[in-house]
Amino acid sequence: MKEWVKVCLIAFLVVAVTPSLVTASTEIEDPKRVILTYEKDEGLGFLDEIPHTIHHNYERLGAVAVTVNQDDLPLLENEEAVTSIEEDQQVKVSAQQEGWGYTSVGTQKSEHLGLAGEGVKVAVIDTGINTNHPDLKVTGGASFVEGETFVDDNGHGTHVAGIIGALDNDEGTIGIAPKAQLYAVKVLDQDGNGLVSSVLAGIEWAIEKEMDIINLSLTACTPSDLTKQALQDAKDAGIIVVAASGNRDVCTYNDVTDVLYPARYPGIVSVGAVEEDQSDSGYTYGGPSLDFTAPGMNIKSTYITTEDQQSGYETLSGSSMAAPHVTGVLTLYKEMFPEFDKDELLNIAINNSLDLGEDGKDNIYGHGMIQAPTTPFSDFERDRWYSVALELMARNNWISGYRDASFMPQKEITREEVVSIIGRILDLDNEQRETRFSDVPKETFGSGYIDSAVDAGFVNGYPDGTFRPKDLVTRGDIAILIHYAFNIEEDKELESFPDISTEDYYYDSVTTLKDSGIVNGYPDGTFRPMENISRSEVVYMLYKVIELK
Fold first, then answer.
1. Helix or strand or coil: residue 509?
2. Cα 237 from chain centroid?
3. What are the DSSP E strand ranges found in 181-266?
């Protein structure tokens, strides 16, 4: 039999779940609760000869949570069918207004995209959720605390749930994903106490119910092989698992140089907390396994109603509060890109995060503070020179991407695409119709904008009666389009670029845009007017025009 494994688990958040199968044999005089793994082919026959009570049977893991007599443990240790034993330790909790966390992760900037987490299933594995709270809608759940429902009688799980999905109802506060389907998975009791076996059962329930995301605001000082395997099963099922990095008042007897468990397991999205000024909270663990930071200090959210707390809202702090901010943001990404797998969604979130501290990933902030989606593009990266411009253009629905949700910033742009973007900015008529050009039929996506641009006087066709919509646009051509579409005033006395002469057809336009600060040259001072221009360059030039206006 494998060596005895002792687990010390201290939880900051845990969820509500339903009662599990309990089979009992009497004569247990000195009870010891443990979790056994066993050879699946052998079954549980090895328990028949000793008094026992089965609390949970994890068929997926090949494990069982059971109470036996202390004196019978040596028999189990010597049983060939038993492969490991873990002590079933206790777990504990730790400690409509847009809160600072809501705005710091940029949720309000996602509103133009219509994102609210609709259709995404989120399991909050905690103390349950207050099902009667007017600011919450609980889709379902289960309790793995024996004899209890998944209704929260502690408050912690309700607080976490509100950060993720408090309703947009002009009452109390608002969650990051107010239309998400929240599931209460209760594994801790009224005092915030529970067992590892309950957490394992909650994870298995989330897998069986095909959750999209699991929030685990709970931490442990030492690893558990069974918890690690259960979470690996969840990841293999395509579930994103988000976990708190842990608070520094835990594991004080250990020299901790990384986040706590389960956040430290590979593939778990680990989250630490920052202050309102985006500085390190100094209160939560960091380390090489840290993925993100998020608002975690003085966070107001939904709560249970108690004799001492009548409002139904409370302010709490810690990595437990940071984790659901990340869960909420990932819920928005899942809604936006439902066909993407968990790794693709995480890559988008990493590229879109707000880098803090040292450049790139570090042990204090991870990849940075997570940010809600502000553009519909899967390849958006916040640290690019054109990022602000792309964000603005997307927020106003002036640009669109490709069928795979990418923007392809370095791809060259066509005449039809440029005219359509300018047409959206100018609010031209985009109704598809027959045009005066033989190569622009009504079915062409930009036919309306092209026809309207001709009427507006800033677009012409070629002498042969064509428009050539798929031709690529040069830097000189885009200068002409912008110059005349937006009526930018000229100054004939200005100096142009050394590679442009007064005889060039684009001279006036390039020079005017240079004077207005809309275009710059290359480091060598040239403009290179005959080079094809990229989508990102066009977006940035139009952004400068909008700033000018």
1. helix
2. 18
3. 181-186, 193-195, 213-216, 219-220, 240-244
Selected catalytic residue, list 301, 320, 387, 496: 320
The tens digit of pLDDT for each residue in 326-360 reads 999 999 999 999 999 999 999 999 999 999 999 99
Q: Domain locations in the chain?
A: 31-87, 100-352, 386-547
Strands 240-244 and 82-87: unpaired
- The answer to whether 534 and 472 are in contact (CB under 8 A) is no
Residue among 196, 263, 209 nearest 238 (CA): 209
Facing residues of 28 across strands?
A: none
List pLDDT tens digits, range 174-233: 999 999 999 999 998 888 777 889 999 999 999 999 999 999 998 888 888 999 999 999
Cα(478)–Cα(361) distance, integer angstroms: 38
Contact of 299 with 317, CB cutoff 8 Å: yes
Q: Is 126 noted as a catalytic residue in this protein?
A: yes
Alpha carbon distance, N-terminus to C-terminus of the chain = 75
Whole-angstrom Cα distance, residue 528 to residue 497? 9
CATH fold, domain 31-87, is: Alpha-Beta Plaits (3.30.70)
**How does DSSP classify residue 533?**
P
- pTM for the model stands at 0.84
For the four alpha carbons of 508, 513, 516 and 520, in that order, the dihedral sign comes to negative
Of 133, 156, 159, 367, catalytic: 156
Distance CA 34, CA 42 (A): 19
Q: 307: how many CB neighbours lie within 10 A of its CB?
A: 5
* Paired tokens of 79: 């049983």
SS3 assignment, position 161 = helix
Beta strands in 19-158 (DSSP E): 23-24, 31-38, 52-58, 63-69, 82-87, 90-92, 121-126, 138-143
Residue 90 — φ and ψ, nearest 5°?
-75, 155
DSSP state of 5: B
Q: Which of 126, 189, 379, 508 is catalytic?
A: 126
Quick one: tokens of 204?
């298995």
3-state DSSP assignment of residue 441: coil
The neighbour count for residue 118, using CB atoms within 10 Å, is 14
- CATH dotted code for 100-352: 3.40.50.200
Both tokens of 288, joined, read 């090489």
426 vs 276: CA distance, rounded Å: 39
| CB within 8 Å of 111: residues ≥ 6 apart | none
156 catalytic? Reply is yes
- Distance of alpha carbon 353 from alpha carbon 124, whole angstroms: 23
Cβ proximity of 162 and 302 under 8 Å: yes
Q: Name the pLDDT band for 95 (thresholds 50, 70, 90).
A: very low
Does 534 participate in catalysis according to the annotation? no
3-state secondary structure of 299: strand
